[in-house]
Every structure is written in C-alpha cells, then in structure tokens.
Amino acid sequence: MSTLEKTLRGVMLAGIFALPFICLLVTTSLFFPYITGKNFAFRIIVEVITAAWLALALVNPAYRPRRSWVLGTLSIFVVLIAISDAQGANVFKSFLSNFERMDGWITIAHLLLYTVVAASMMQTENMWKRLFWTSLGVSVFLSVVGLLQVAGFVAIGQGSGSGLSARIDATFGNPIYLAVYMLFHIFLAAMLWAQSWASRSAGDRLAPSISYGTIIALDTLMLLLTGTRGTTLGLIGGAVLALLIYALVRGSMRTRGIAIVAVCAVVVLGGMLKLGKDTSFVKSVGFLNRLASISLTDSTISSRFINMSIAWQGVKERPIFGWGQENYAIVFDKYYDPRMYGQEQWFDRVHDIIFDWWIAGGTLGLLAYLSIFAALLIALWRSGGFTVAERSILTGLLAGYFAHNLTVFDNVTSYILFGTLLAYVVYRSTSARKSELVYTAAVFPRSALPYVTLVTALAVWGVAWFVNQPALAQNRALISAITPHNDVALNLQYFKDAIAYQSFGTQEAREQLSQITAQMARSSVPTDMKQRFFDLAVSEMRAQAEVSPLDARFPLFLGTVYGAYGAYKEADASLQKAHELSPDKQSIYYALGQNAWAQGNNAQALEYFKTAYELETGNTDAHIYYVTAAIRAGEDVLAAQAVLSLSASGLAADQRILAAYVARGQIAKAIPLWEARVKVAPDDAQAYFTLAAIYYQNGQPAQAIAALERAKKAIPSVATQADPLIEQIRNGTVTMGQ
C-alpha cells in the first residue's frame, strides 16, 4: 500500500469518525446557528471523504461497494427525487433548500455519498464498533449537557421551561432533533450490549452491562426530557416490538413471559398516566404531562391531521412526481384550512414523513422511500449476517425511527445516523452473502493514483466551492445586515451584498429586508434612507415573487411593505395576489382589511373581516376584528349582535374594540364588556384598571373608584397602585388612559 493510498484511507476514516461530533456545533456567527453550522460541516466532510474514496475506487476495485438492495433503493430514491425536484414548483429551492432547513436534494445526495463511502471503507467489525463507541461517547456528553440544562446551569436553546418541566435541546436548538438522536443511540447501545453479551463468558459480562446499561438509562432520560411525544412512543413501541420479536423467534418460555409482562406493564402504566393526568405530580413533570395530554382533541395533534388533509389535496393535484422538495408551503397556502388559524401561518412541512415525501416526490418518490425500509428489513432478516438479537433490536430501531417521523421530520443529525445504519447493514449483509462488487473492471491503473487524486480533488473542490462558499458568505452578510449599526446605510449595503450572492439564502435575505423595511417606516431614520430601503425591498420582493410565483408569502410581504409606507393601492394589488394564491387564509384577510381601514374604506374592511370570521367562527382574533370593523363602519346593530358571545366569555374586553368605541364616541358601550371580563377573570388586574378608566372617561368617577376598590379586594397586591388613583379621582387631578 502506497503512502498516498494510506493518506487517502486516513482522510476517509478521519472524516467518517468526525461526523458524530457535528451535532456539537452551534455556530453563533451564522444565521440559524443550530442548523447551518452542522449542515455546512456535514456537506464539506462528505465532499472531502468522497474525493478520497473516488480516487481510490477508480484505481482499486476493492474500495467499491458491494451489490446491495439497500444501496440500490437509496440510489433510486435519490434519482427519483431529483426528477421530481427538476419539475417542481420552485426548482432552485428544491435542490438547494434554505438556511432554516438546509435540506433539499443536495442533502439527500450527500447522504447517499456518505452511505456509499462508509459501506465501502468500513470493512471490519472493529471499525464499526469504534465508530459506534465514538458516537455513544458523544451522546453521553450531550446527556450531561441536558442534565445541566435541567439544573439551570446551561441555557436551553429553543426548548422551553425549567427543571423537570423543561424541554431540553442540548446543542440541537430543537427538542425533537435531540429526541431522535437519543432514540438511535439507545438502540445502538442495546445492540452493542447484546453483541458483548453473546461474545463474552458469564464472568466477563458485568462491566459492559454496567456501561451500556448506564448509557441506555441516561439517553432514555434525555429523550423523555425533550418532551417529544412521538419519539417517546416510538421508543416504547420499538423496544416492545424488539422484545416481542426476540421472544417469538428465539426466546425461551422465560423470555416470552418477560415480553408479555413488558407489554402488560406498558398498558398499565399508560392507563395510570392517563388517569393521573390531573395530579400535581404529572403536571409538574414536563414529559409526563405531555404524554398524559395526548388525545385527538389536542391542538397539536388535531393540527397534524388537518395538515395531512391539506397535503392530500396537493397529492391529488400532482400524484406522480409531486411538487418537489421544499414546496409544501405552496400546497399549504393553496389548500389552507381555516381551522389552522391557531397554528403558525407558514408550514413548510406536513410533519408526517409519508405525506412529506408524497408531496415532495409524488407516489414514485414515496414508494422509493418506503422501499429503503423494505430493503433494510430484508437485509436484516434474510442475509444471514445478523443474530436474532441484532435483528430484533435493529427492527425495533427502524420501527421507532419511522414512528418518530410520522409526527415530525428529519434533520442532518438523523440523516447521519440513518446513513450510518444503512452502511452498517450493507456491510454486515454483503459480507455474509459474499456479494460481488458493483463494478470490478479497472478504470485506471494503480500507478495513476496520484493523477486521479489530483483530478478528483480539483473536481470535488469545485463542486464544494460552488455549493458552500457563496452560501457561507451570504449567511455572514445576512447576519451583518440584521445586526444594528450606528449607520443604517451599512445595513442596506450588507443586504445588497447578501442578495447579490444569489445563493440559497436569498429568499431569507429578502424576507428579512422586507420586515426591517416595514418596521423602519415608524422609526426616526431619515426619510431618504427609508426611501432607499423601501425601493430595494420592493424590488427584491417582486423578484422573489417571480422566482416562486405560486407562493402567497411574497406578495403578502410586499403588500405589508407598501402599506407601511402609505402606498395603499399598490398594497391592495399585492395583497389581492396573495389572496388569490391562498383564498382561505385569515391572516391575508386581516391584511386586506387593515389596508382598507388605512384608506378610510370601513365598509370594505368590514366585508374582509366578516369573511375571515365566517371561514371559522371559533377564531377569536377574527371575531374581534369583525366586531371592531362593524363598530368602525357604523353598523351598530351588527356590532351588538356579533359581540354577544365574545362578551359572555370576557374575550370582548379587547383594546381594538375599545379603540373603535372611543373613535365613535360610544365608550359607554365598552363598560359591559369589561364588567364581563372582571367577572370571568377576577384575577386580571389590568381589566379592573381599564374598567376604571372607561368609567372615568364616561363621566362616572364614583363607578371608577368602585372598580378600583373591587380590584383591591380581589387582588390585594394592587392596592399600592389603586390607592393613589382613587385619591386623584377624588381630587379631580387624575389623568387616566385606557
């Protein structure tokens, strides 16, 4: 083996063993620090090891992968998704994604390359064990970070809560990403434990049992503390499935008895948790509270089903090749269900792996994705390369991972772990079957290795530069653009620089520009600078709308910018376009109504807000807008009727309704609304003070004082604020706002 060959092998191994550490990266200098750094590192490392592997594979068949249906189905999947992306709704975004997700075809292509390289290079069991041990070591470190987050010593990134009520996220920035990471490592530790148990004598099993058992316990605790219900259920279901399979296939009567007891225990504990969901203990432990709250009426769960029904409409429209990756947002807007009003307004994922790939790749893409799992199971159970314990555990892992993805979606760390699992199964199954190499003929003589290495290095470097350098530079420019500067002209220039790179962060740069420009309209920034921001924002949002003409997001953003600067006719045209692309989204009706108000067209505004309310009458925000619009339009009878149900619940005590009554000189009509509020919510201190202000402005000082006295009685702690106001009212010196 030549020095160059050894070097290239070393590069590949170093890259493969570096991948488990990617999850530790939090690049605060980049936009989306929990996402971008990990993904750029993954792509660059894969590109480097691919260059090294390609050079060796071209001159030495031994470095080529063996025939495997697992690699075959993965390759077919990547090719079919490329075809779908090429004819998708937004081709550029489908292939390159954006900073928030950093997914797209480029990521699954890198996943394929990593899987091929790892399966070709890692050809001994010892190599794989060392890789798994490395990854388990990182998981233990992250578990310690999670414990420190629970204890309050390390800040939670984008999770929530504190103590046992916290949803930890370690270095992932999202609890669901940490959850699936721990899911993989729990099963990997179980597999290694089973292997160690089988290969050691009875006297040598204690130390590995303690080690692997501790890792499993620690990682399981971390998974639970993420509060990710789908992954928790996936873990439980996968573990039970693994135990049942082992018991049925190979287990003794004792093992089968244990399996039955385990199933019964899960059922009993689940029932006890459901029955105790209202106890203080369950409510105080975040993951228990979330598990106990699982029901079809839960807002998150019900929204998932609504999302699936929206996705189904998209599938029916493009059933064969789908919409291309990263285009669900278009489907979501086009077939928006008004019942989603309480959720975020811009879903870019279905949060269900079946529908996500069905939308992205159509029926062909979905079948190709599912075939990967079928190939994995066949390799596990028919290749003869795995023990019953290994088959059972890895089948349980696949089941748990699939269950996790039925409620969320993949990210770079789960892709890496899935790719590692794929490569390991390929190695074990092809070794057992002694499968032939994919291609055995020599392409170049071994003596040509230096030249082949140079060419492949240059080629891959060129691809890597094209893929990563403009995006990294754009990301840094965007960070500078949204960072406050003493001279806002610098922000404007940084925005221009970021957009000029024309990489996959261009959409986010344009959106940030439009939002900052709209906010700037109300600031003290010089008029000429506002105009420069306005001109650039309008130009860029128009350009973005041309890139993705089916997306309602961009004309809505453009309309917001127009409206902020008083260009109401132009705003109306843009908002009408957004409405055309998403005819049932209430937030677009709100924008249209507010724009009509700005033009003094109260009657038209009332029509918009009425329609928004009628789309889903349970939408409190739409109801308040409707009442407000009726008041402002002078439709007093309609307003009185519309406000009734809101008033009974205390929800009519809203500043928008109050402001409308004040503008009409009808402040007295607000009194029963706030009286209803303090009756329904007697601990709402602000409601008492607002009620007192309404009474006072209506010329009823005695009632204002009485309202403040009631506040003191209901909430004694407000006496220090209420007493001075009472004295001022009595003296006639009060200046009381709303």
TrEMBL record:
TPR repeats lie at residues 552-585, 586-619, 685-718. Its main location: membrane. It is a multi-pass membrane protein. It comes from the Bacteria. The chain crosses the membrane at residues 12-34, 40-59, 68-84, 104-122, 131-156, 176-194, 206-225, 231-249, 357-381, 412-427, 448-467. The keyword RNA-binding does not apply. It is found in: Membrane. Coiled coil: none annotated. Keywords: Membrane, TPR repeat, Transmembrane, Transmembrane helix. Pfam families: TPR_16, Wzy_C. Residues 216-370 form the O-antigen ligase-related domain. One of its GO terms (cellular component) is membrane. This is O-antigen ligase-related domain-containing protein.
